[in-house]
Design a protein that fits this description.
The chain has helices at about 5-25, 45-70. With about 70 residues, it is mainly α. It has one domain (about 5-70). α1 (about 5-25) packs across α2 (about 45-70).
Length: about 70
C-alpha cells in the first residue's frame, strides 16, 4: 500500500471539507456577503469596509459549518 505525502493528505482533507461544506450549504444557505451588495461606482473606501465586514462574516459562517460537520 502506498503512503501519502503531506501534500496529498492536505489535498484529500481539502476536497473532503469542500464536498461536505457544499452539501451543508445546500441545506444551510450562507449569509449575504457585503461586497455582493455594493453598487456600481462604489468608492475604494466602501469596498474596503465591505471586504473587511465580509471576512468577519465568512469566518463566522465557516465556524458554523465546522460545528455542523462535527455534529
Amino acid at each position: 500500500m502506498a503512503t501519502l505525502d503531506r501534500q496529498q493528505k492536505y489535498c484529500i482533507c481539502l476536497y473532503t471539507y469542500r464536498d461536505l461544506s457544499e452539501s451543508l450549504r445546500a441545506t444551510q444557505p450562507g449569509p449575504a456577503m457585503p461586497t455582493e451588495a455594493l453598487r456600481l461606482g462604489a468608492t475604494v473606501d466602501d469596498f474596503a469596509r465591505a471586504a473587511m465586514a465580509e471576512i468577519e462574516r465568512r469566518e463566522g459562517y465557516e465556524g458554523e459549518l465546522l460545528t455542523a460537520l462535527e455534529n
